[in-house]
């Protein structure tokens, strides 16, 4: 899917992504992959779990899975399908006890608290859940604290307004917090070029950045971005593409 302000456009299947987009090569430049079920209406966790398993078996980097996590059984199914972490958004508003249970069972390092926010007539940073259709009546700083208190080991901030624009990340979202979060923070929404990634990583409160529109970074572009980041003095994990492919093939053969 391509996304613009949370409006989605289908562009191909998972197999198409691997076969025609050279995703294995693209993933050499990534540290982690986020896979979301953005279905509207009735979800099929079993079918989505099969998709997760298919991706995890062909992509040798950590996979974070989210979307429709409304029960422990669904979350456990995703973990058994190959997920390394769970991205939880609406459940923090609807069933915080579930989020605490996930953190207790899998470890809070496996629970990523998602915060989707956008500007409204009442607030410049209104927190949205249920695919951006329902607003949470809590300010951003309070919500960050709530997520941390209820099991979030990381927090992913995503700007609905910046989503898919390619105009750059909304760095102001963390500048306005009353307290710096105690857990790692990821920023998403608006990345369109390498400079946007570097700007996000240079921010003292941001630990990682994420982008959904991979078409801005085809071929070896992510590896080139990693090189540019390293040249600024920031530490980056270094991957050897040949070793990566050999390791991937080894695990794919034994699976």
Polypeptide structure, described:
The protein is of the alpha/beta class and 255 residues long. It has a single domain (2-254), classed as Aldolase class I (TIM Barrel, Alpha-Beta Barrel). Helix content is 38%, strand content 18%. The protein is built from eleven helices and eleven strands. It has helices at residues 14-20, 23-26, 45-56, 72-80, 90-94, 96-106, 140-149, 172-175, 194-202, 221-231, 241-254; strands at residues 2-4, 7-9, 33-36, 63-66, 85-88, 111-118, 126-129, 134-136, 154-159, 185-188, 208-210. Strands 3, 4, 5, 6, 7, 8, 9, 10 and 11 form a nine-stranded mixed β-sheet that branches. Strand 6 (111-118) and strand 7 (126-129) form a beta hairpin. Helix 3 (45-56) runs parallel beside helix 4 (72-80). The chain is globular and about 40 Å long. 34% of the residues are buried.
A few lines on this structure:
The protein is α/β, with parallel strands linked by helices. The protein is 38% helix and 18% strand.
Give the arrangement of secondary structure elements.
Blueprint: E1 2-4, E2 7-9, H1 14-20, H2 23-26, E3 33-36, H3 45-56, E4 63-66, H4 72-80, E5 85-88, H5 90-94, H6 96-106, E6 111-118, E7 126-129, E8 134-136, H7 140-149, E9 154-159, H8 172-175, E10 185-188, H9 194-202, E11 208-210, H10 221-231, H11 241-254
Parallel strand pairs: 3-4, 4-5, 5-6, 6-9, 9-10, 10-11
Antiparallel strand pairs: 1-2, 6-7, 7-8
Helix pairs in contact: 3-4
Mean pLDDT, all residues = 84
CATH superfamily: Aldolase class I
CATH topology: TIM Barrel
Name the CATH class.
Alpha Beta
Architecture per CATH nomenclature, i.e. the level-2 architecture: Alpha-Beta Barrel
Largest sheet entry: 9 strands, mixed
Poorly predicted spans: 1-11
Number of helices: 11
How many distinct beta strands?
A: 11
Intertermini distance: 28 Å
How many whole angstroms does the radius of gyration measure?
18 Å
State the secondary-structure class.
alpha/beta
Beta-strand portion reads 15-25%
Global morphology = globular
The domain tally reads 1
Assembly state (oligomeric): single chain
Helicity, as a percent range: 25-40%
Q: Sketch the topology as an H/E string, one letter per element.
A: EEHHEHEHEHHEEEHEHEHEHH
């Amino acid at each position: 899917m391509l996304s613009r302000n949370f409006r989605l456009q289908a562009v191909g299947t998972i197999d198409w992504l691997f076969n025609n987009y050279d995703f294995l090569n693209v993933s050499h430049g990534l540290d982690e992959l986020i896979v979301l079920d953005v279905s509207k209406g009735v979800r099929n966790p079993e079918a989505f779990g099969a998709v997760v398993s298919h991706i995890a078996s062909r992509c040798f980097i950590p996979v974070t899975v989210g979307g429709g996590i409304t029960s422990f059984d669904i979350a456990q199914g995703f973990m058994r399908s190959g997920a390394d972490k769970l991205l939880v958004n609406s459940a923090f508003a609807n069933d915080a006890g579930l989020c605490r249970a996930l953190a207790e069972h899998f470890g809070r390092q496996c629970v990523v608290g998602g915060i989707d926010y956008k500007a409204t007539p009442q607030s410049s940073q209104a927190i949205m859940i249920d695919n951006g259709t329902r607003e949470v009546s809590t300010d951003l700083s309070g919500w960050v604290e709530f997520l941390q208190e209820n099991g979030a080991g990381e927090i992913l901030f995503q700007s609905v307004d910046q989503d898919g624009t390619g105009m750059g990340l909304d760095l102001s979202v963390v500048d306005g917090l009353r307290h710096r979060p105690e857990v790692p923070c990821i920023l998403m929404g608006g990345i369109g070029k390498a400079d946007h990634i570097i700007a996000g990583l240079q921010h003292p409160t941001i630990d990682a950045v994420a982008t959904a529109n991979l078409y801005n970074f085809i071929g070896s572009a992510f590896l080139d971005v990693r090189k540019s980041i390293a040249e600024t003095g920031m530490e980056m994990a270094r991957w050897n593409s040949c070793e990566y492919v050999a390791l991937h093939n080894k695990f794919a053969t034994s699976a």
